[in-house]
Structures are given as structure tokens and as C-alpha cells.
Design brief:
alpha/beta, Uracil-DNA Glycosylase, subunit E, six-stranded mixed β-sheet, 8 helices, 6 strands, globular, binds iron/sulfur cluster
């Protein structure tokens, strides 16, 4: 359960408004990442290990035997007010054997229209970020903390996150990934059940139910503030090394 320390304080991504800026191909001052980048890996960070049954023992998703079953439940879900304004729920997408799970905050307008995660300008940037570490998007499972679009792209509220979290927990449990990349403050704080800022959470290898978690900026935040590109590239290079280790 999202308990005492859990948050919904919006991180930098949560506060990033939609932007119409053209997406640059790549920051000109940032080299492509390679698996050969070396240096020490980040130190251990937070450990969040809720008992497996505590969050959704009575939730129907507990009986979902695969990702498709989770998606079916999400499409029919009316457990919070976000169902009222959605065009499509956005459960997430990617292969069942994905080693990397990317978790964002929630669907935006384009995602709501298409039913697919990260398909707007921020999604295009995410695809390029993954490509720069030689990770085709098709090999990654991509999803969000909440599966329906909050109105006006506002951050999801505490009760909306709490209602939706069983789906994310079950997806991670079914995927058993080698690494989770939490993009933006909401994803990081929710997965790690903490109020620490995104800046404080970066550059450490956290654990969610034993799965390593890295924290970085949300692509939408990068569109708004290009100064965050450099640290993001640093983070994804670390992600590549953890996946290769
Ligand atoms: Fe259900 Fe999550 Fe959509 Fe709320 S946001 S209606 S909990 S799927």
C-alpha cells in the first residue's frame, strides 16, 4: 500500500507542461552511450519490499496470470475518477520477456487517444534515448504509474495512484525484469515509497521487491529543460551497464 512515507508529491516530470517544442535528434554535446563506459556503479539506495499480498490480496489483478489479463482488467477498470475522462486506458506495452521496464507517470493526450504509452513527443525522445544505449524500444516494457490520463495532464492524486498501483505491481511481478527505470518524480517516489526528491534519488541503485531501480528525469521534463539531458544520459549509460552485468 502507499503508506506513511509514500507520496504523490509531483517530481520535475509531474510539473512539466505539454510542449510543442521540436524534439532535437540528440543533444549536440552528448555522445551516444556505449556499453563500454566504465567507472564505479552507483551505491545502493532505498529498499522497498512490501509483502507480496498486502497491496492487492483482494484485488482482481491478483488473479491475472499474464500481462494480457492485466491489460484486460485495466481497460475495464473504474476504480478511480480517472476512468471518467479517458478515451482509452493505457496499460503499457512491450514483450513479456523484457529485461528493462520503463515506468512513467501517466498517459498524456496522445497516449489517451491511441491507448499506447509514450507515443507523443516525449515518447519519441524516449525511443531515441533507448536507441542510444542500443536498446530498441520493442525490447522494453513501457508503462506508467496510472493507466488513465489525468485531466489537463495534472499529476495523479494520491488516491488515484493508490487505486491503480496494483496493476503496476502485478506487471512488474509478471515481468520479473532485470532493471526498472523510473522516469520522473512520481514514478520514482511511488515505486520506492518515499518523499525524497528526484535529485536525491538519482545515481543510486534502489530495490523494489528485489528488482534494481534506477531513477532519472522524465522525457517530458527534458523537452522543457535541456539542461537535464546530460544527467539523463549519464543515468541511461548506467542502466545499460546494469543490464549487461
Ligand atoms: Fe482504474 Fe487506474 Fe484507470 Fe483509475 S487510473 S480507472 S485505477 S486503470
Amino acid at each position: 500500500m502507499l503508506g506513511g512515507d509514500a507520496v504523490v508529491a509531483p517530481g520535475p516530470a509531474a510539473s512539466a507542461p505539454p510542449t510543442e517544442e521540436p524534439v532535437p535528434d540528440r543533444a549536440p554535446d552528448v555522445p551516444p552511450a556505449t556499453a563500454s563506459d566504465d567507472g564505479p556503479l552507483p551505491p545502493p539506495g532505498l529498499v522497498y519490499d512490501p509483502p507480496p499480498g498486502d497491496l492487492f490480496a483482494t484485488h482482481p489483478v491478483a488473479r491475472a496470470g499474464d500481462l494480457e489479463a492485466v491489460a484486460t482488467l485495466v481497460h475495464a477498470c473504474t476504480r478511480c475518477r480517472l476512468c471518467e475522462g479517458r478515451t482509452h486506458a493505457v496499460p503499457g506495452e512491450g514483450p513479456t520477456d523484457a529485461r528493462l521496464v520503463v515506468v512513467g507517470e501517466g498517459p498524456g493526450r496522445t497516449e489517451d487517444e491511441t491507448g499506447r504509452p509514450f507515443v507523443g513527443k516525449a515518447g519519441e525522445l524516449l525511443t531515441r534515448i533507448l536507441g542510444a544505449i542500443q536498446l530498441p524500444r520493442e525490447q522494453v516494457f513501457i508503462c506508467n504509474v496510472v493507466k488513465c490520463r489525468p485531466p489537463e495532464n495534472r499529476p495523479p492524486l494520491y488516491d488515484e495512484i493508490a487505486a491503480c498501483l496494483p496493476y503496476l505491481h502485478r506487471q512488474i511481478e509478471l515481468l520479473h525484469p532485470k532493471l526498472i527505470l523510473a522516469m520522473g518524480g512520481t514514478a520514482a517516489q511511488t515505486l520506492l515509497d518515499t518523499k525524497q526528491s528526484l535529485g536525491a534519488l538519482r545515481n543510486r541503485v534502489h530495490r523494489f521487491r528485489g528488482f534494481p531501480v534506477l531513477v532519472t528525469y522524465h522525457p517530458a521534463a527534458l523537452l522543457r529543460n535541456p539542461n537535464w539531458k546530460r544527467p539523463t544520459w549519464d543515468d541511461v549509460r548506467i542502466a545499460r551497464r546494469l543490464l549487461d552485468s
